[in-house]
């Protein structure tokens, strides 16, 4: 395992993106999103994904010089076309628009079509929280998830992310896939040669599997809840909600027609343009004085932190606590890079003549 300081890793990732045609400011922004994922311990969406974005460029499915164009707008709402560009760039641009509208109207939303994978939703939602807005970010994704009662790939892992600002503390961050597990967790397990828990995956025959490689062999991920007895219909409904908001509403592809992240797989049919996002910002001061909001949210946090834990050595946490702690730890000690991911980075360094 390699430990790499975040700023050094950021310089490398930025240089790689510049080498394949990204303007420098977009390369730095893209690196921000990937490094933030690794800092927060979301290794499935950090630099391990870098090679995947480059493969999309090589396949002509991601344009590093794409233009972001707003083509429909009302006072608190906009809808934009990312021009086939990177979601790592398009989502922050959409959040900037959402924040500008929320500053005027108390709420702002910006839909995006014709985009690509946008990394971790938390990054985009936290952009709003840094400016004392409640942030929302969601995207549809490559079809890997079976609907409730089915075994065909119909939905993506379709994450939802919210960030609630606090005055002198990291925000409350809710960032979750609507599947039982994100695809990246299976990739991590496969790289480590480890089995996965029951309830994450069905093999190609529709049987529960603990082998992460079964997904690539034609299996499907299960919706959040996994089984009928444990509420899989709720996870399916959440995944469908994201697909309707980010795909149908924005003009992007939806359901089984969302383009796959894997470059060598091509969508069989288009019902829209690219991948879709929905980005939003809400001003707490539209509901009450901002100081009142901050006081009330700290009361909420203290109430949950002080509630009785099952294990006295493991206090009750709030959403975002583990990631905030990992972020602080990794800033100090460095980001851990698995050997297989380090080997991928070394190949990219050699291919693009960039020191690793």
Would you kindly provide a written description of the structure presented here, covering whatever features stand out?
The chain is α+β, with helices and mostly antiparallel strands. The chain has a domain at 181-221: Wheat Germ Agglutinin (Isolectin 2), domain 1 (2-Layer Sandwich). 38% of the residues lie in helices and 16% in strands. The strands form three sheets. The protein has a seven-stranded mixed sheet. Strands 9-8-10 form a three-stranded antiparallel sheet, with no helix packed on it. A two-stranded antiparallel sheet has the order 1-12. β3 (77-81), α4 and β4 (107-115) form a beta-alpha-beta unit. α1 crosses α2 (24-39) and α4 (87-105) packs parallel to α5 (121-129). The protein is globular, with a radius of gyration of 20 Å. It starts with a strand and ends with a helix.
Brief write-up:
With 356 residues, the protein is α+β, with helices and mostly antiparallel strands.
What is the correct CATH architecture of the domain at 181-221? Answer: 2-Layer Sandwich
CATH homologous superfamily of the domain at 181-221 - what is it? Hypothetical oxidoreductase yiak, domain 3
Q: Can you give the mean pLDDT?
A: 95
* Rg, nearest Å: 20 Å
Continuous helix count = 10
Which percent range fits the helix content? 25-40%
Count the beta strands: 12
> Approximately what portion of the residues adopt beta-strand conformation?
15-25%
CATH class of the domain at 181-221: Alpha Beta
Task: Look up the CATH topology of the domain at 181-221.
Answer: Wheat Germ Agglutinin (Isolectin 2), domain 1
Give the strand order, joined by hyphens, for the main sheet: 2-3-4-11-5-6-7
Q: Uncertain regions: pLDDT < 50 for 5+ in a row?
A: none
| Helix and strand sequence | EHHHEEHEHEEEHEEEHEHHEH
Describe the biggest sheet? 7 strands, mixed
- In one word, what is the shape? globular
The termini sit apart by 15 Å
Structural class: alpha+beta
